[in-house]
Write a structure and sequence with these properties.
- This protein has 19 helices and 13 strands.
- By secondary structure, it is an alpha/beta fold.
- It has three domains: about 130 residues, 3-Layer(aba) Sandwich (D-Maltodextrin-Binding Protein, domain 2), CATH 3.40.190.10; about 100 residues, Periplasmic binding protein-like II (D-Maltodextrin-Binding Protein, domain 2), CATH 3.40.190.10; about 220 residues, MetI-like fold (Orthogonal Bundle).
- The protein is elongated.
- Bound molecules: arginine (ARG).
- Belongs to the binding-protein-dependent transport system permease family. HisMQ subfamily. Belongs to the bacterial solute-binding protein 3 family.
- It is found in: Cell membrane.
- Its main location: membrane.
């Protein structure tokens, strides 16, 4: 009799257990608003020594001489500096839309960019160079040698434009410089166009420089400011003037270069230990995503299952259409539609977390609906007839006779689905959800290790799904106990 409510309780308990992660995670996502003036800096922190991630005292920090300059500007303005790290090609839109107040990211003040934003005076100059694998030394001597070659560049950078000008070159344009370096190390590209100051940080026994000057001119870096914000522009320029007259910028470059780490030789346990706080944060978000995905997925699944088995044809039709549509399209495509499509077309702006939960739950809802239906239909018809002949109403027969048996029969399938949700939630990392997968990429970007960060992520996912399977197996055995006599 009490079977159903007991199952429901257990399920709820599981979901609640997972949702414990909510407050912790949400709390870490909010910035306190103490009322003071804020200066929001947009940057792509993959560009050592300009701006890059570095773990200092176990905490991930964004450092570099661009950041030092930003601190000086903020101090001169009496404002608190807030840093927003994003892909380089997201910086211009972020500045234009007002998400950030200024962009310091080793950005070159090109004519093209000047059409949409304003630039401060130049604060640094570097040169364009080609990075190659050391074993290829001597292979590329002039620009002509790069024709028809596989070349890595940063998306949205002037290096991408240069690459597009090389005849026959096959360009791989990626978000972060570290991704490009990994592509080079793993033979996916054979050369990368970068700036010498940045390349210096990567030169080790595996990566060398080709003696090719891409263009004779120096690459300048300036600070981007929203068009018409002359007040900030003047403030920025006067801070730059002061720093230049004190020779501070040169010092900052030297200091930042000293912070740059060489290749990371940590083993997997050391990587895990050094970045445990990263993974912990990722676990919180993965749990949150999966818990909410399971919760709403079950609700959607029940509703759709009821639709599919309803007496009214139209409801049955809706149920079937839902299942076919959701099951027949990739989750990644659904995510893109919900996150970008709805936002750009209808102005519905879901946060990454909201978009992730919606995608996961509508998705698992479709699968769960089918599982529930299979369960109900799998119960012998005679059971319903017997219940009815005992005088039970349809509802009561369902509740006390059919559903408990159905639930028990499909428990393994439901368990499968929950495990799938935990694993599939990793897809949400693509829109910037700070889950385990996302954090693994961050660690990869910091350490330049391609294997360990992901092995750690795999281990964490495995432990999570394994614990869940064990719990479900236990539940299954408990329920089966009633069958033995
Ligand atoms: N100077 C180049 C440009 O303006 C590359 C800058 C890349 N900066 C970065 N933080 N990744 O396009």
């Amino acid at each position: 009799m009490k079977l159903i409510s007991r199952y429901t309780m257990m399920l709820l308990a599981f979901v609640l257990m997972l949702t414990v992660a909510v407050p912790t995670v949400l709390a870490s996502g909010t910035t306190d608003n103490s009322g003071g003036k804020k200066l929001v800096l947009g940057t792509s922190a993959d560009f050592a020594p300009y701006e890059f991630h570095k773990v200092i005292d176990g905490k991930d920090e964004i450092v570099g001489f661009d950041i030092e300059i930003a601190k000086e500007i903020a101090a001169d303005l009496g404002a608190e500096l807030v840093i927003e790290d994003m892909g380089f090609d997201g910086l211009l839109p972020a500045l234009q839309s007002g998400r950030v107040d200024l962009v310091i990211s080793g950005m070159t003040p090109t004519e093209e960019r000047k059409k949409s934003i304003d630039f401060s005076d130049t604060y640094y100059k570097s040169k364009q160079v080609i990075m190659i694998r050391t074993e290829d030394a001597g292979k590329y001597l002039t620009m002509a040698d790069l024709q028809n070659e596989k070349i890595g560049v940063q998306k949205g950078s002037i290096q991408e434009t240069i690459g597009q000008g090389i005849p026959g070159a096959q360009l791989t344009a990626l978000d972060k410089i570290s991704d490009i370096v990994l592509q080079l190390q793993t033979n996916r590209v054979n050369a990368a166009i970068v700036e010498d100051t940045v390349a210096a940080g990567y030169l080790d026994d595996a990566i060398g420089l080709a003696p090719i000057v891409v263009d004779g001119e120096q690459v300048e870096a300036a600070i981007g400011i929203r068009k018409g914000n002359t007040e900030l522009l003047n403030a920025v320029n006067s801070t730059l003037d002061r720093l230049k007259s004190e020779n501070r910028i040169e010092e900052m470059v030297t200091e930042a270069s000293q912070l740059m780490v060489g290749k990371d030789t940590k083993n997997i346990f050391e990587v895990f230990w050094a970045y445990k706080s990263f993974y912990a944060k990722g676990i919180g978000y993965t749990l949150l995503l999966s818990a909410l995905g399971v919760l709403f997925g079950v609700i959607i699944g029940l509703i759709i299952c009821m639709f599919r088995m309803h007496d009214m044809a139209i409801l049955r039709w809706i149920g079937t259409a839902y299942v076919e549509l959701i099951r027949g399209t990739p989750m990644l495509v659904q995510l893109m539609i919900i996150y970008y499509g709805l936002s750009l077309t209808f102005g519905i702006n879901f946060s990454a977390l909201q978009a992730g939960v919606i995608t996961l739950s509508i998705n698992s809802g479709a699968y769960l609906a089918e599982i529930f239906r299979a369960g109900v239909q799998g119960v012998d018809r005679g059971q319903l007839e017997a219940a009815r002949s005992l005088g039970m109403g349809r509802g009561a027969a369902m509740r006390y006779i059919i559903l408990p048996q159905a639930f028990k029969a499909v428990l393994p399938a439901i368990g499968n689905e929950f495990v799938t949700i935990i694993k599939e939630s990793s897809i949400i990392s693509i829109i910037g959800m700070v889950d385990i997968m996302y954090q693994a990429s961050v660690v990869k970007n910091i350490t330049y290790q391609g294997m360990n960060p992901f092995l750690i992520a795999a281990a964490i996912y495995f432990v999570m799904t394994f614990i869940l399977s064990k719990l479900l197996g236990r539940l299954e055995r408990k329920l089966n106990a009633s069958d033995r006599r």
